[in-house]
Design goal:
The complex is a heterodimer of chains A (309) and B (269). Chain A is an alpha/beta fold and 309 residues long. Chain A contains ten helices and 13 strands. By secondary structure, chain B is mainly alpha-helical. Chain B has one domain. Chain B starts with a helix and ends with a helix. Classes of the chains: A alpha/beta (309), B mainly alpha (269).
Chain lengths: 309, 269
């Protein structure tokens, strides 16, 4: 097993009487992409900011590459890269200037190639306020990785990006991971978290409620399989049809959607019913629960997997 | 050193590139200089006697009090300082570099005013150039320090404007630029000694322009330098990386200590 680069043990963060994070523990290994997920107010930002040295923990311990962020902030600066929100640069700075400026403080040569790679070639002389939101985020990312940090923190990295840039960013993340960089990915995009993360932790109400690989997380849910069916004559529509092992049912557009605890008998019953009614199957899809389904199940306990209302 | 030069170079260019800063650093002081030269010169010929230092003082007040604090507050509010902190940019650079670049812009503006005042308006030139430069530097240092301090302690842009105007407007009215201090009521003249502009005009008159100072001109220079030193020290001490959930090292009211040299000067000079 690879060496642990981030260690968070019984970490607690409070603001006055308000408890933002209540005794969480997790580890991130070398060359691992670790997804930190949770609804707004769950404690993600407080956790990230404490790891980045912007906040002081009120309890427990935090180590990043062996460094205590509160005791050695200078040492921390050289091992971490952080992509903050897009507006965190002066509005008149150009991408070229920003690259020179930040690299000079990290005592490394400017990485203008990253600007080109992230599609900022034509905007290198434009002022920050003239860049689109997506371009600002790409610049923030280029600056975060320019000094080749050991640990990279990405906060909603693909928000506002087009498909091509998003794909380029994912390639860059994989490349960095292959080179041994550990990445903490805080995102609301569950598809991205599922695709990119080696492991994820779900924060809810100031505590970690689930941790593991995306596959492990989805497997520990209610284990409902989503079956979507569309027929020529809509013989399944309405609530009169009774199917085995189905715990939830909803209609969406021309589809009937069933959440089944045992997919085999459910699908067999659907086919039998369609045949008996002289109808014809047009589409039938069987999907395992996604990370998003499981996330919703955890964070909105009154809502069934799959977002069924 | 490379990092410092990069930072300095970027901030200096911002002073020209940013429309608000361009206005405060160059357009407003130079426009005001021309307007005052043509209008006040015709209304009150006596004004021309002190026009050169008065317009230099005005340029310093505009560039510092109206130009420095707001970008600092906005940068803190927008998370730019947090980004700087993460990337190892020291707070001292964040506070000192904008002040230094503003002072460099002011050197250019002051040189234009000084060079143009005599041929355009027949204004007298300084008789002691070294002291002229010294008083200029002392005032620019004091005002830059005070402006940085205002930027550090202000909770938002509206408060920044309030604090800045608290120095700027009385300085224009009572600082000896429009009306000589000797013509002010005694109470107003005494109150004016709390303002860097009044000390600067007193020092310019006594040390550089060959006029009579109302009180010790060297005392005024010392007060300006002490004000600048205290202002920068307090700004560094009270600096906060962001406005959210951060405990400041000291209460913002500590900033009032910056008035101490001027208060002492009220009784000593």
């Amino acid at each position: 097993m690879k060496e642990s680069v981030i260690q968070v043990k019984d970490f607690r963060k409070t603001y006055g009487d308000f408890v933002a994070v209540d005794g969480i523990s997790f580890e991130v290994r070398e060359g691992e992409i670790f997804g930190l997920l949770g609804p707004n107010g769950a404690g993600k930002t407080s956790t990230l900011e404490s790891l980045e040295g912007l906040r002081e923990p009120n309890g427990g311990s935090v180590r990043v590459a062996g460094i205590d962020p509160t005791k050695d902030p200078r040492g921390l600066r050289n091992v971490i890269g952080v992509q903050l929100q897009s507006s965190a640069l002066p509005e008149s700075i150009t991408p070229d200037e920003a690259m020179k400026f930040f690299c000079a403080y990290h005592t490394v040569a400017p990485r203008f190639d990253l600007l080109d790679r992230l599609g900022l070639h034509e905007k290198r002389k434009a002022q920050f306020y003239e860049l689109s939101t997506g371009q600002q985020r790409r610049l923030a990312l280029a600056l975060a990785v320019a000094h080749e940090p050991q640990v990279l923190f990405l906060d909603e990295p693909t928000a506002g990006l087009d498909v091509a840039t998003r794909s380029e960013l994912h390639d860059l993340m994989r490349e960095m991971k292959d080179n041994g960089t550990s990445i903490i990915l805080a995102t609301h995009d569950m598809a991205e978290a599922e695709e990119m993360s080696d492991r994820v932790a779900i924060l809810l109400n100031r505590k970690i409620v689930a941790t593991g690989t995306p596959m492990e997380i989805t497997a520990t849910g209610a284990e409902l399989t989503k079956v979507s069916v569309r027929t020529r004559d809509s013989c399944l529509s309405g609530s009169a049809v009774s199917l085995p092992a189905v715990s939830q049912h909803l209609s969406k557009e021309a589809y009937e959607i069933y959440y089944s605890t045992d997919v085999g008998p459910t699908v067999a019953a659907i086919i039998a019913h369609v045949e008996s009614q002289g109808d014809m199957l047009i589409d039938l899809r069987v999907e395992r629960p996604s990370l998003e389904d499981r996330f919703l199940e955890i964070t909105r306990p009154n809502v069934a997997a799959g977002g069924a209302q | 050193m490379t990092a410092f030069l990069n930072h300095f170079s970027f901030e200096f260019r911002t002073g020209i590139r940013n429309k608000t800063l361009l206005l405060m650093n160059y357009l407003f002081p130079l426009g005001f200089f021309l307007m005052m030269g043509f209008v006040m010169g015709a209304i009150n010929p006596l004004f021309i006697e002190s026009m050169t230092p008065a317009m230099v003082v005005f340029a310093i007040l505009a560039a510092t009090f109206l130009g420095i604090p707001d970008p600092l507050v906005n940068a803190r509010e927008n998370g730019i300082f947090r980004n700087y902190k993460i990337n190892g940019i020291p707070s001292i650079s964040i506070l000192v570099i904008p002040a230094l670049t503003t002072m460099l812009h002011l050197v250019i503006v002051a040189a234009i005013i000084t060079a143009a005042a005599a041929p355009l308006f027949d204004a007298p030139l300084p008789v002691n150039w070294l002291n002229y430069v010294l008083v200029f530097v002392a005032l620019a240092f004091a005002c830059a320090g005070l402006s940085v301090l205002i930027g550090v302690i202000s909770a938002n842009s509206r408060i920044t404007v309030l604090w800045s105007q608290l120095f700027f407007i009385p300085s224009i009215m009572l600082g000896g630029m429009m009306i000589p201090s000797s013509m002010l009521p005694e109470v107003a003249a005494k109150f004016a000694q709390l303002l860097p502009a009044a000390h600067a005009m007193n020092a310019f008159n006594g040390l550089a322009m060959g006029n009579t100072a109302d009180y010790s001109p060297w005392g005024s220079v010392i007060i300006l330098v002490l004000t600048g030193l205290m202002a920068f020290a307090l700004a560094v001490y009270l600096f906060s990386w962001d406005s959210r959930n951060t405990t400041r090292r000291g209460h913002p009211a500590l900033a009032l200590l910056v008035l101490l040299p001027n208060l002492v000067g009220l009784f000593v000079l």
